[in-house]
């Protein structure tokens, strides 16, 4: 009996961008993406807010009223 693994032994996942099947292994350096191009397309979508995680917006601790130079600080 051979201990050699076949290609079907390795899991595959669909590329989030183009849906092409990608083998989940060290031979696929851009996993879960099929290529650097698909990875950069996805990054651009996040940067332009094309992808969003649902939920309430989070605001910074600094509000506009905190920036008023006439207010005294404690």
TrEMBL record:
Entry binding sites for Zn(2+): 15, 18, 34, 38
Stated role: Inhibits all the catalytic activities of DNA gyrase by preventing its interaction with DNA. Acts by binding directly to the C-terminal domain of GyrB, which probably disrupts DNA binding by the gyrase.
InterPro entries listed in its UniProt record: DNA_gyrase_inhibitor_YacG (IPR005584), Znf_NHR/GATA (IPR013088)
Subunit comment: Interacts with GyrB.
Cofactor, how bound (note): Binds 1 zinc ion.
Protein name (database record): DNA gyrase inhibitor YacG
Cofactor entry: Zn(2+)
NCBIfam families (UniProt xref): PRK00418.1
Keyword flag Phosphoprotein: no
Alphabetized UniProt keyword annotations: Metal-binding, Zinc
Family, similarity comment: Belongs to the DNA gyrase inhibitor YacG family.
Disordered: region residues: 49-74
Domain of life from the UniProt record: Bacteria
Pfam family, one: YacG
């Amino acid at each position: 009996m051979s201990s050699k693994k076949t290609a079907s032994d390795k899991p595959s996942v669909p590329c989030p961008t183009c849906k092409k099947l990608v083998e989940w292994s060290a031979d696929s350096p851009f996993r879960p993406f099929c290529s650097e191009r698909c990875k950069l397309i996805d990054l651009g979508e996040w940067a332009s807010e094309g992808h969003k995680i649902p939920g309430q917006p989070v605001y910074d601790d600094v509000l506009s009223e905190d920036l008023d130079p006439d207010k005294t600080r404690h």
